[in-house]
Design goal:
The complex is a heterodimer of chains A (313) and B (590). By secondary structure, chain A is of the alpha/beta class. Chain A is built from nine helices and nine strands. Classes of the chains: A alpha/beta (313), B alpha+beta (590). Chain A: One of its GO terms (cellular component) is GPI-anchor transamidase complex.
């Protein structure tokens, strides 16, 4: 938990808020926050995260749903979410359930360097890994168009290696520059992708649109986020199945002997004291025991010889 | 996923006539008979209540309970439950898929201070706690447990997927089912706790979505996260169990209880003035009851009135209940009645402190701490206090210690009043490295008015470098110990199960009049394990490479480098001439 990463959490949450305001529901958003800022004991206003020092907008809000938090935010989990290779028991809210008609926005913020982004201060994701993950997504038809925004120091290096089609990338700083993400957040919040002049933004934002099929100037943001649904039109009438029969309650008649149910004793002292030891499941003997017995038998037969066996049995 | 039912007008007719408090009349007056809608699905019913207990230090304790009762059988063969009304669908599907008999999950921020606040209605340890009883038809309990924790982590936005076999235990005598049932084979019980788990708005949001009215009507409008988390203690829990459907107890019904306990601190939230109101606590007032609820009440504990505080608006409705071994008197505000809200159509309770009082000392109290120095060994001390002046009673202490604190059970000592106290039952399951934690359960008889100390020594293990968390110097958590006891009660407890009992007094089933069941959680421990220096490999590589490059490189150069005289380069004219000479085959110029 590093308190100076507060601004990264605030950035992520302001993008989350903007996306929700555009109408995307929580089931379509995977939010990963590596540090808990809102309910940290150092936060003088619990359950709030502000993106600006005049504290006018609480970006944490009352209805946030964080899917990956704390130690779950690792490079492995991030790549698994992108490529969809998650264990079968992963709940739906933690999966990226996209198909070949979905447009995806990926926003990453944190500390980074030339060609990498830090996760949890102990591991990094490199630009090559990210490019390969996007290629896997393209091969598996997991996206239609993808917008990648990165807000770290030297962020432009992260999209240098992309090679899959239909990708557009934006970064808050070029290679060799540090990003003071405060001003970038403010501009992203207004959701205007104008190029920010050097005087206001301290760092120069970069972008890469060569892999994008359409002309970026003609793509509306709301159009990008609206998805095209698979619709099947039919002119035949369809009969809906009959409603489910409600379970027939067996009325308590006098003939059937119904015993009254009871609650269990919470601390049955006498029963506990006289508890028989549990039947332990039988396990085959451990390797150590087997080895020990083999040694004993070997020594025995070594000393006494096999021919004496008949005297024993 | 589970959307709450909208307020459709059919609800008024569909409400079944269950017996509620005798002192109240039903608002609509119509009592629907059993034969009205024979094709209706199983009946379900929703009740909500809020109990406000002012504490002697000036803090205030608010406890919300939302209960949904549903007469259905999830596990009936051949019947698939598909019509959900008040009971949330996400939980219903979880129960039927994993054959769950009982489920208890709680998320807590803060630690319950028993000595200052008394006993809570629903105890819970810091962090997340999950214990589940499975049905005896389940063949692979561990597999079901693993999948259940993953599904619940998605429902509650918590990292419950960190629960695996290394922090799950199978208690042999603690955590008996709180619901109906006969057989208690502990092979079907699993218990796990995550002391590190953080509770924040993202856990409250899905919890509120499980309520029938959501957070739009009834008592749930008070649940605003900015105020709830600015408190000394916040705990939200979900308890699902089978209960008696009626007083004869011939059939079962599923009960879902969502409880939220919060203690507001006088100085951080109250600004020091000993005065509390609903608006000050929750930044909202109550305007209506949830239309889907059959009963919606606010209870204020006025047992210590009028010396302690003054309550306004006054209400004539009073109720007495025996809870936690004491007879308490409550002022009742019934939200289903329109006159509760007065002229302004809103209810804002105001409590003004008048004097100080002495709180009754709780009879059972426990503490835990780590003793010792250094990063190799240590000692865990658990201290249990019995404050009853003349009665002794037994307690069941359950300790679950992770495998990286290697306990030496031969050093286990239990002393009361500086004499050895031999437990009448000990169950110990040693840990297996990276597979299983330690489990120690003991039944100890506590002498009256005494302090019992349980000590055990341990050694800290060195983990593999990949097993450390990103911030290993913070330390590693050890979950709270659980002390379960039947404490002698000063007042006769009510063993009859009646339908009109308030929710807070009917959580734990009462079997005998002279004692009540209580569960006390100790503090979790934070121990430092010997942590390697993670920057060491990088530093070593840098240093070694520098030494090799500078030292060995220079040495190698000195030995193997030869010097040659290099001729100065010729001017351009001479180079051209040399080129022509080479073609001609004539010796070159110098």
């Amino acid at each position: 938990i590093f308190w100076f990463n507060y601004r990264h959490v605030a950035n992520t949450l302001s993008v989350y808020r903007s996306v929700k305001r555009l109408g995307i529901p929580d089931s379509h958003i995977v939010l990963m926050l590596a540090d808990d800022m809102a309910c940290n004991y150092r936060n003088p206003k619990p359950a709030t995260v502000f993106s600006h020092k005049n504290m006018e907008l609480n970006v944490y809000g009352d209805d946030v749903e964080v899917d990956y938090r704390g130690y779950e935010v690792t490079v492995e989990n991030f790549l698994r979410v992108l490529t969809g290779r998650l264990p079968p028991s992963t709940p739906r809210s933690k999966r990226l359930l996209s198909d070949d008609r979905s447009n995806i926005l990926i926003y990453l913020t944190g500390h980074g360097g030339n060609g990498f982004l830090k996760f949890q201060d102990s591991e990094e994701i490199s630009n090559m890994e990210l490019a390969d993950a996007f290629e896997q997504m393209w091969q598996k038809r997991r996206y239609n168009e993808l917008l990648f925004i990165i807000d770290t120091c030297q962020g432009a290096s992260m999209y240098e290696r992309f090679y899959s089609p239909n990708l557009m990338a934006l970064a808050s700083s070029q290679v060799g520059e540090d990003s003071l993400s405060v001003s970038h957040t403010f501009f992203t919040c207004l959701f205007q992708f104008k190029v920010c002049p050097q005087s206001q933004c301290v760092s120069t934002p970069g972008h890469r649109t060569d892999l994008f099929q359409r002309d970026p100037g003609s793509v509306l943001i709301t159009d990008f986020f609206g998805s095209v649904r698979k619709v099947e039109i039919t002119k035949d009438t369809i009969n809906l199945t009959s409603p489910v029969e409600p379970p027939i309650k067996r009325s308590g008649s006098g003939d059937i002997q119904i015993e009254s149910l009871t609650y269990v004793d919470q601390l049955p002292v006498a029963e506990i004291i006289h508890q028989k030891p549990k039947q332990k499941d039988w396990h085959p003997p451990d390797g150590f025991i087997l080895g020990l017995w083999t040694l004993i038998l070997l020594v025995f037969f070594q000393t006494y010889g096999i021919k004496h066996l008949k005297h024993i049995f | 996923d589970s959307d709450p039912v909208g307020f459709d007008s059919l609800d008024l007719n569909e409400r079944r006539g269950r017996s509620t408090d005798a002192e109240l009349d039903r608002r609509d007056g119509t009592r629907t008979s059993e034969a009205l809608t024979p094709a209706a699905a199983a009946r379900d019913e929703f009740q909500e209540e809020l109990v406000i207990r002012p504490l002697h230090s000036g803090d205030i304790y608010a406890s919300f309970q939302f209960r949904t009762l549903w007469d259905t059988d999830f596990l009936q063969e051949g019947q698939k439950v598909s019509h959900y009304r008040l009971f949330p669908k996400s939980l219903g599907q979880v129960l039927s898929k994993f054959s769950v008999r009982e489920l208890h999950i709680s998320f807590t921020q803060g630690f319950w201070r028993t000595m200052q606040w008394g006993q809570p209605f629903i105890p819970s340890p810091p962090g997340a706690e999950l214990w589940v009883w499975f049905h005896d038809t389940v063949s692979d309990v561990d597999g079901n447990w693993k999948e259940l924790t993953n599904v619940l982590s998605g429902i509650f936005c918590a990292s419950l997927n960190f629960i695996d076999l290394t922090n799950t235990v199978q208690p042999s005598a603690s955590f008996k089912p709180l619901g109906l049932g006969n057989a208690t084979d502990h092979r079907f019980l699993r218990y796990a706790t995550l002391p590190r788990e953080i509770v924040c708005t993202e856990n409250l949001t899905p919890w509120k979505k499980l309520l029938p009215c959501g957070s739009k009507a009834g008592l749930a409008v008070l649940l605003k996260s900015e105020k709830l988390f600015h408190s000394s203690f916040h705990s939200q829990a979900v308890h699902i169990r089978p209960v008696c459907q009626d007083e004869q107890c011939t059939s079962k019904a599923w009960e879902l209880r969502q409880t939220l306990n919060v203690v507001f601190d006088l100085y951080t939230a109250g600004q020091g003035k000993k005065e509390w109101s609903l608006f000050k606590m929750f930044s909202r007032t109550l305007t209506e009851a949830c239309p889907l609820a059959t009963s919606s009440k606010v209870y204020v504990d006025i047992t210590d009135n009028p010396e302690l505080f003054e309550l306004s608006p006054a209400t004539p409705l009073l109720s007495q209940a025996v809870v936690l071994g004491d007879r308490r008197t409550y002022s009742v505000f019934d939200l289903t009645r329109a006159e509760t809200f007065g002229q302004l159509r809103s209810l804002n309770l105001l409590l003004r402190w008048k004097g100080d009082g002495e709180m009754l000392r709780p009879l059972l109290h426990a503490e835990r701490y780590v003793a010792g120095f250094g990063l190799q060994t240590g000692e865990i001390h658990t201290v249990i206090y019995n404050n009853h002046p003349y009665r002794a009673f037994p307690v069941l202490l359950m300790d679950s210690v992770p495998w990286y604190l290697q306990l030496y059970i031969h050093t286990l000592t239990v002393t009361s009043k500086s004499r050895d106290n031999k437990p009448s039952y000990i169950h110990y399951q040693p840990a297996k490295d990276r597979h299983r934690p330690h489990l120690l359960e003991m039944l100890i008889q506590l002498p009256p008015h005494s302090m019992t100390e349980v000590t055990v020594q341990f050694e800290r293990a060195l983990l593999k470098w990949t097993e450390y968390t990103p911030d290993p110097n913070h330390g590693f958590y050890v979950g709270s110990s659980v002390v379960s006891a039947l404490v002698p009660s000063m007042v006769a407890m009510n063993t009859n199960f009646t339908q009109d009992q308030p929710l807070f007094s009917s959580f734990v089933p009462v079997k005998e009049e002279s004692s009540y069941f209580v569960r006390v959680y100790t503090e979790p421990l934070l121990v430092n394990l010997p942590t390697p220096d993670f920057s060491m490999p990088y530093n070593v590589i840098c240093l070694t490479c520098t030494v090799v490059a500078v030292g060995y490189g220079s040495f190698y150069n000195l030995l193997t480098r030869t010097f040659q005289v290099d001729e100065p380069s010729l001017p351009l004219a001479k180079r051209l001439a040399n080129l022509i000479r080479r073609i001609r085959g004539v010796p070159l110029l110098t």
